[in-house]
Amino acid sequence: MINLKNEFIYAGYLTSLGCPAFVLTVAILLNTAIDWPVLAIAYLTPLIVYSYNYYEELEKDAATNPERASHLRKKVGLYPFILGAYTLILALLLVFFANIYMIIFVLILLFCGIFYTILFKDLTKQIPGFKGIYIAAVWALAGAFFFNFHYSLEWDIFSVLMFLFIFLRGIINVTFFDIKDIVSDSSQGLKTLPVIWGKKRTLKFLKALNIFGFLPLLIGVYLRIMPVFALSLVVFYFYDYYYLKKAKAVNSRGLRMVSYTLADAEFILWPIVLILSK
Asked: For 102, which of 42, 98, 184, 251 could close a Cys bridge (C-beta 3.0–4.6 Å)?
């Protein structure tokens, strides 16, 4: 059971649930049914990206994420086969269930995710905060527009507001994760917000962003673009406030566990809260 728990947390399975959770959130707010292949594609796309990135940065992770590195080393020889299996399943799903626009969109997401490690990561050495903005933007693109590409829907104000909402909440998540990597990111010359501001100031910034992050929802409800029950997601202000406050008092190991569990689990809870409130 411990191995299963570690596999779920450290191998990207938990984090990857965020993308299908975004797609479900959009479907619930639009009061539209959704097909299971869309959710499967939305899950496998980030799973491939995270699996590849974890594999490529395994040695670097040993210093900042020792629990994850220790677990992943046990199956390092299997990684090429695991990635191959994920890619084959995703390819079959795209061939049988996706249109050409969806296929192109997924390929762009894979490119953005995988090539961040290969090409774009160095930009964080020149552009302060680039990593958080880049990753949150890719999340927001996937979450807000997966639905549009699969069902050939028009891009409207609803999609833009959902993009902004996911983007702002995503910056909180990504920046919070960067706090545990301050030492390694600093040694690599990466100008993440925690490296520039330090842990204390970064947490203050995230607490402020946690308030303003719900503005897209408020605007959507005010303009009657979103249903009123969308405001139930405001409950995650308290959720984020709790783990941001908890992060001040925990040690390095505790901070990593808060990141891998509480922070990563937030997005999975969005559709559950919406269904209950609806």
From this structure: 98
